[in-house]
Design brief:
This protein is an alpha/beta fold. It is built from 16 helices and six strands. It is a single-pass type II membrane protein.
Length: 374
């Protein structure tokens, strides 16, 4: 069944003939070179694991963080992908000193947390499709605040909302939280991940220029509030199959932990403090529906088809599984030992995928070095 918000939007969509990438009727080839900019608390983990599944099952080479981490270093200044130690096996060589991965075709996919910088991203993965997912800023702010336990770190009385206490003096509270590594992703955290420097948060000219640049640089900006609709656009853009985008939701919060009503005064404070993110969201909320329009009149039918497949997969995999809760009051599924390979793929988290992919890459590069040096 089509979401009511989607139905209202589709009432204003007039089918048009077109020949661009989103509406071309001609057969296309699946795209296997892509960069997903993963942004905290936007539904990005669900997307990332879906993409990792896609890459692993097609033996694509993912650019992974080195060491045991599953995120790239993200500081106030953008990291450099041309620093070898940041990317897993970037500088791996054979006995002659020749790099291994360029000979194996190079890296094809990037999905782990990393700041967007088109110039250095293209050094790593040339000719890639770029996409990301963003979320309505008020919902994202509240979700981030509670998920990363800022509500426990901000002193407040029993009858006070810690987010409201924080917003009374966000600068002072941010300073107190400066040693918390998640703090830099809080204020305008979506735009920060997409390359906006913190000193430019209140510079309207720079913000608008950055939005314009992203409009040209991003092939698709998905919206968390229209999750399934977004994946349908991604499927068409990438020439993938419905099965490629099927997912089982991850990190769902307890119902009692979902706060959907924010008082008007608090809303205003949040939006003023996070002024860059709302501008970002408003822009791509408008362009999103242009892409839906270009998809064509079959959008509603395809959305129903996709949701039926997703529901079928969820019911099949969860019939013998159980939901558990972590310290963030978010859920994850635990499957029995005899669960199918497909169900394990659907429920495997980001850390587990990274470990699995690293293991395959080690085996592949070792075999190649042995062959080349033999």
């Amino acid at each position: 069944m089509i979401h009511e918000w989607t139905r209202q939007k589709l009432q204003h969509v007039e089918p048009k003939q077109g020949t661009d990438a989103m509406s071309a009727p001609n057969p296309c080839q699946p795209n296997h070179r892509f960069v997903f900019i993963k942004i905290h608390k936007t539904g990005s983990s669900t997307i990332a694991t879906m993409l990792e599944r896609y890459g692993y099952r097609r033996d694509l080479t993912l650019a992974l963080p080195s060491g045991a981490a599953h995120s790239f270093p993200m500081s106030n200044r953008r990291y450099r992908f041309d620093t070898p130690q940041l990317v897993f096996q970037w500088n791996l060589t054979d006995q002659s000193g020749a790099l291994v991965w360029p000979a194996l075709g190079g890296y094809q996919v990037l999905v782990n947390h990393a700041l967007y910088n088109r110039t250095v991203d293209e050094i790593l993965i040339p000719n890639a499709v770029y996409f990301t997912m963003i979320r309505e800023p008020l919902a994202r702010t509240e979700s981030f605040f509670r998920y990363f336990l800022f509500d426990q770190a901000v002193p407040h009385k029993a009858n006070e909302d810690p987010l409201e206490v924080f917003m009374r003096d966000p600068q002072r509270h941010t300073q107190k939280l400066r040693n918390n590594k998640w703090t830099k992703y809080f204020r305008n955290g979506q735009f920060f991940s997409l390359g906006l420097e913190r000193e430019d948060y209140e510079n309207l000219r720079v913000v608008e220029a950055a939005i314009d640049s992203l409009s040209r640089g991003m092939d698709l900006v998905m919206l968390n509030e229209y999750f399934d609709e977004s994946l349908l656009l991604l499927k068409k853009l990438m020439c993938w199959d419905f099965q490629d985008i099927v997912y089982i939701s991850k990190a769902v919060r307890r119902t009692s932990e979902n706060h959907t009503s924010i008082p008007a005064g608090l809303r205003d404070k949040i939006l003023r403090w996070n002024a860059a993110d709302p501008r970002l969201y408003q822009h791509f909320n408008r362009t999103f529906w242009t892409k839906v329009q270009k998809y064509g009149p079959e959008f509603g039918h395809d959305l129903d088809t996709f949701r039926a497949m997703k529901e079928s997969a969820t019911q099949a995999c969860m019939a013998t599984g159980s939901r558990h809760w972590d310290r963030h009051n978010s859920s994850y599924w635990k499957l029995p030992p005899n669960a199918s390979e497909k169900c394990r793929d659907y429920t495997r988290d980001d850390k587990a995928w990274v470990k699995l992919i690293r293991s395959r890459m080690r085996a592949k590069s070792s075999a190649f070095i042995k062959y080349r040096n033999g």
